[in-house]
């Protein structure tokens, strides 16, 4: 086992990052250094050292626990090829891709558990109807769309039921307009989507009414209809991916570390190479890559991790809170497809200040767009809100009422029902979407920190973009040619 590098504790290193505007280094104090191994559970040599934040004399150590002010590392040290921070849909699908597409070993570490972040709140649509052909997101989204379909098909071929395993349903999707201007826009969208190779149809008011009799339709109404659009259930899908990943545990290739926040990076200090992470309980070395897929926490986490080294990295991903209403055993509304109002397209990509028609409540800009689906268990899911209120995830009844009212604008039968009548059969999912100001996720290596990659910032499309994101990240790490251009998602653009 090779020792990565050596280090003297009183040395100050300067990392040169002149060509990297987003990542600035002042000075970095290193204590000792790390070594690594690609064997799970491999013991580290007794003379391994750590990179640690702060002054050298207060650094953590493993060599001489008797020194005053220095704590001994008694927690376990383990080594993997790849360490992934974040067990949301992005982190877990990246793990899956490494496991099925290479022979590397993988550790997934999360400060909580899978589905505790945005993923657990997801409505589950993987639709293409609101995606724009030719946009910078198109290739990634289209690739993911194809990969999800392939996964569902492969489950069928193996005798499994995608509905059971993933909550998979091919319901088709309707992007609904209510004015003549919106309907004209939808006609153009249908043309674009058809030219991009998707089965797409424009429905005028009478065809739309035939498809969805519960929908309020007047003479100006229209919809873009994609009959092949699918949805999944985020919880079932994550459970399926986790189960599949765990099959590699017996081969010594997969370990999960849950309820373990990552606290710092480990580095040799000699060349900015990050060699793993330290959690509250464990030190996890990575031979090939550390992938940070921590959703809306990615910006603050990276900021804190590199700040300890006197560096600055500003990944502008921030939390965009969403409420989603879940109605169990709800028989008052029958839907044949997944539905979304046309305003969703702008609300997803715009910053709050750009949203027209959004509600303002005590200076906080809130937008609500109607989305409606029926999940694999038969629950009616009605969404959803968007607002910037930091990392707060408290239930806000006024927002739930607004979502209900907005749904009533589209489905008149709901207007006669009060949410309080629904009582115990009502749940609300709340999640923090990882929002990027330019509307694109950040996927790729971090300049100046070799071995570190980011995969975050998918806002309201992380479920749909997960499989292509996972493929893109693994291709980068493994040095394979990418199936989609990664340039639009580069970390360098974070300034
Ligand atoms: C109401 C709502 C509806 C949505 N509907 C859809 C939809 O229908 N279709 C769609 O495609 N997308 C949808 N989305 C968006 C989708 O849910 C997200 O884009 C996606 O879940 C993001 O996944 P992620 O893995 O990046 O983040 P997350 O799921 O948030 O996972 C990040 C993980 O990182 C962990 N973490 C954070 N800090 C640390 C640390 N220091 N150490 C270790 N771990 C850490 C967290 O605990 C968390 O588990 C919806 C979102 C919301 C809120």
TrEMBL record:
Q: Name one Pfam family in it.
A: DAO
| Database matches in InterPro entries | FAD-dep_OxRdtase, FAD/NAD-bd_sf
Gene Ontology CC entries for this record: cytoplasm
Q: Does the keyword Transferase apply?
A: no
Coiled-coil-forming residues are none
- Which molecular function term from Gene Ontology is one that the record holds? oxidoreductase activity
Q: Does the keyword Oxidoreductase apply?
A: yes
List residues of the FAD dependent oxidoreductase domain. 81-476
Record keywords = Oxidoreductase
Q: What does this protein do?
A: Required for the assembly of the mitochondrial membrane respiratory chain NADH dehydrogenase (Complex I). Involved in mid-late stages of complex I assembly.
Q: What is this protein called?
A: FAD-dependent oxidoreductase domain-containing protein 1
Which organism is the protein's source? Senna tora
